[in-house]
């Protein structure tokens, strides 16, 4: 079974790295409870970059609303 190592992971040390989770999905994965079923989708670099920019716009909108308060 694949495992997902987050930013505080130790060195890979014997685990083959078969994939990388795109940056815009890391926060979603971090909120999952252990044992939760997930699925993966292969994306191109361009798709990953577009998802990053969409997430950046979404977060900037949230931050701008917080700053007004």
Walk me through this protein's architecture:
The chain is mostly helical. The protein has helices spanning 23-30, 45-68. It is extended, with a radius of gyration of 15 Å. The mean pLDDT is 86.
Throw out a few tags for this protein.
69 residues; mainly alpha; 2 helices
Quick summary:
With 69 residues, the protein is mainly α. It has helices at 23-30, 45-68.
Q: Say how many strands there are.
A: 0
Radius of gyration: 15 Å
Instruction: Kindly name the structural category.
Output: mainly alpha
Mean pLDDT: 86
Number of helices: 2
Low-confidence stretches: none
Percentage of residues in strands: under 5%
Residues in helix, %: 40-55%
Cα-to-Cα separation, first versus last residue: 45 Å
Q: How would a textbook summarize the main sheet? A: none
The general outline is extended
In N-to-C order, the SSE pattern is HH
Topology diagram in text:
Elements lengths: L22 H8 L14 H24 L1
């Amino acid at each position: 079974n694949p495992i997902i190592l987050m930013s505080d992971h130790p060195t890979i040390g014997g685990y083959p790295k078969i994939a990388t989770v795109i940056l815009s999905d890391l926060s979603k994965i971090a909120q999952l409870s252990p044992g939760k079923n997930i699925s993966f989708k292969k994306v191109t670099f361009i798709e990953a970059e577009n998802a990053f920019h969409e997430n950046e716009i979404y977060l900037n909108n949230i931050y701008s609303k917080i700053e007004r308060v």
